[in-house]
């Protein structure tokens, strides 16, 4: 079953025009309008995970950020093919135990 935060993030960025972005707070406010500030750290953490999977890009001042050094005000947008390829190339290789014969 998919995480509701992940689903909300992916649905919101899928509805955007290419090159457009959203604030993580928009997702938090949609999910918990009354206590969105408490939801924001979870939204940011899941967005970071999605970026590492190549499913979205986190930007700051319009430029993609390094997932290991995300700080401050950021936005979320659809990843380009190049950004997805870069994210996937940074993933650690699968352990032998993870590969099925």
Automatic annotation (TrEMBL):
Region (Disordered): 77-101
Protein name: DUF3253 domain-containing protein
InterPro entries, A to Z: DUF3253, WH-like_DNA-bd_sf, WH_DNA-bd_sf
Superkingdom of the organism of origin: Bacteria
